[in-house]
Amino acid sequence: MEPLPAVHPRPGLPERVSVYEVGPRDGLQAEETVVPLPVKLELIDRLGEAGLAIIEATSFVSARWVPQLADADELMTGLRRRPGVRYPVLVPNERGFERAMAVGADELAVFVSATETFAKQNLGTTLEGALEMAAPVVAAATLAGVPVRGYVSMCFGDPWEGRVDPSAPAEIAARLSELGCSTISLGDTIGVATAGQVMAVLERVATAGVPPDRIALHMHDTYGQALANVLAGLEAGITEFDSSAGGLGGCPYAKSATGNLATEDLVWMLDGLGIETGVDLAKLVATSRWLATMLGRPSPSRVVAALGI
């Protein structure tokens, strides 16, 4: 039997989507042990070889808060940039922006929250304060001709506040759009969303004035719902989805959280729907198996485990 999904396109779904790979940043930052710089650089290069056209490389946060990404400057300096591949980086503030610009970053991301408690617990500020911190970064980047993505955390559920009203992420998405973010990624940070809830949030976001072509979805698979939520997004016209190679990355805010949606699992489903991604699944699986060896544990990706190539 050929280790590839049977292709059965569904009418009304996008013909092509962008896979926004977050493993080198969102995945590695969750590791307890710092991953050596040469391994990070090889991971990014292997992901590019596998056809990932967007690879979030690192984050210019304080090494005191995220020691796993303390080598951001060295990573960007040593990065072998492949033609046609984008390497966005996350920046939390103006200082992070200056560091990123100094090493040649040409695409950025900022992050805010849809809930007050998460803003306080994770960002050390208020919801409004997070937006105020992001605003000068977006303004400076826009002036420099550098596109900025906006992340919104806790769009569906919050470990302190419980379920999140769809109006909350919709309002924040609209604010980020007004600031000048080219894309807004809605995050299911603790992986509690359901397909119907995803549809409700996307409908509210559209009503707030942010169309589907400017929205991405960042789903976690804590309750095994990530792919169902991606399908709901596809049906709503979303064409960009975040994922992490091999399911790399955990979630410290949810008991038994399995972390990010594995890129392999996402690509398997999209391939089966006949949706183009440009990703070579076999090369991607091989990369995640190599990474699992480097990290000393098996990959949580179902597709990586099933294919065994």
Description:
By secondary structure, the protein is of the alpha/beta class. It is 41% helix and 13% strand. The protein contains 12 helices and 11 strands. The strands form 2 sheets. Strands 2-1-11-10-9-6-5-4-3 form a 9-stranded parallel beta sheet. The protein has a two-stranded antiparallel sheet with strand order 7-8. Helix 6 runs parallel beside helix 7 and helix 8 packs parallel to helix 9. The longest helix has 17 residues. It is globular and about 50 Å long. The two termini are 14 Å apart. About 2% of the residues have low confidence.
Key attributes of the depicted protein:
alpha/beta, 11 strands, 309 residues, nine-stranded parallel beta sheet, two-stranded antiparallel ribbon, globular
